[in-house]
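Session log. Operator J.P. requested a structure for one protein chain; no other inputs attached. Running the standard single-chain path with token output.
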Amino acid sequence: MRHLVLAAAILLPTITASAGLQSSPPDPVAPPSDVPLRGPGRTLVDGAKNPELIDRDLLVASILGSKAMPASPSEREERVLRSFAKQLGLGREDTQILRLEMIRLHADMAPIRARLQIRRSGVPLEDLSAFRQVRLQAYGRLLELLSAGGRRKLDEYIDQQKRNTRIVTGSESR
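Structure written below.
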């Protein structure tokens, strides 16, 4: 009898754990898009339902800004860029174009970053605008330099990111 109790004590947690692995809990229910969120004037925009409400330029600027790298990148920065190019499905030549443009973008953003670090209190609107503009210029150059297939893949990736984006718009009253 003791052996039966011991066997049950060992097997029961194993069976329960394996049963838990087979059926995953349901995903938490997200609030529907375009509904007010905490505070007046705040709305959740779901790109899967309303991709036209996602600012494409801002999304492009964000994506490219996160991939910018210095002229002497670390191995990690190189891996991130190669991974991004692979995710896009770019060939070797288009990957090299992307790499060079991300190095150029990093250099173009450096003076703006320096100005932002000097100020420390508040970010002037013109610096935010300039930061966004240099990223959009990099996107424009990429569209000119990449092969037709590379351009298509980059734009498909951006459209996919729009569909996967959820943002809260508006601001709370102060």
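Operator note: The helical segments are 2-22, 56-67, 75-88, 92-119, 125-145, 148-163.
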